[in-house]
Amino acid sequence: MRTDRADHFVPRWRLIGLATALIVLFVDQMSKEWILYWLDLPLRRTVSVMPCLNFTMVWNHAVTFGMFGGHGRWLFIVTSLLAVLGLLVVLVRARRRLVSLACGGIIGGAIGNVIDRLRYGAVVDFLHFHVGDWSWYVFNIADSAIVCGVGLWLLDSFLVERRGRHG
């Protein structure tokens, strides 16, 4: 019976991925509670935080970066939940740390935005970075976690491919 040292650590990566998902979900939902009910951003609309950052209230009825204009709220919710289920399968099977972290970030972010759609009918976006006349889309912690998760997954793919060529 062969025991691979990497196999011994697989459960730890699963736990790290699940912990990442829970942390992302918690931070995302707490930031939105703070924005909505403590800072009262819907009433204030915009609060300058730094020269390059505002908290700007946007109710996003669409998908990422406003795509699809908010049609099919339930389609977005169901699609997101199916993606989460698929990512949970990948997470359970993951054998690499970056894939586990990536799945956790994406799962936590996706669930955070689904909760918003269920609670408010739209996603709560509030982070607005800008420099001079340049302005980025308004987004939230969940969106950031999803983008970072995808980036980590791409980095992992690159590293695995590179190891394969030079290994």
Question: What's a concise summary of this model?
Answer:
This protein has 167 residues and is α+β, with helices and mostly antiparallel strands.
How many structural domains can be distinguished in the coordinates?
A: 1
Structural class by secondary-structure content: alpha+beta
List the uncertain runs.
Answer: none
Largest sheet: 4 strands, antiparallel
Rounded to the nearest angstrom, the radius of gyration is 18 Å
Strand content: 5-15%
N-to-C order of helices and strands: HHHEEHHEEH
Count of helical regions: 6
Keywords: Aspartyl protease, Cell membrane, Hydrolase, Membrane, Protease, Transmembrane, Transmembrane helix
Enzyme class: hydrolase
Protein name: Lipoprotein signal peptidase
Transmembrane segments: 12-28, 74-91, 98-115, 135-155
Explain this structure.
- The protein has helices spanning 5-8, 10-38, 41-44, 73-93, 97-120, 141-166, and strands at residues 46-50, 53-60, 123-131, 134-135.
- The chain is of the alpha+beta class.
- The chain has one domain.
- It has a four-stranded antiparallel β-sheet with strand order 1-2-3-4.
- Helix 4 (73-93) packs antiparallel against helix 5 and helix 5 (97-120) packs antiparallel against helix 6 (141-166).
- The mean pLDDT is 89.
- Keywords: Aspartyl protease, Cell membrane, Hydrolase, Membrane, Protease, Transmembrane, Transmembrane helix.
- It is found in: Cell membrane.
- Its main location: membrane.
- Pathway: Protein modification; lipoprotein biosynthesis (signal peptide cleavage).
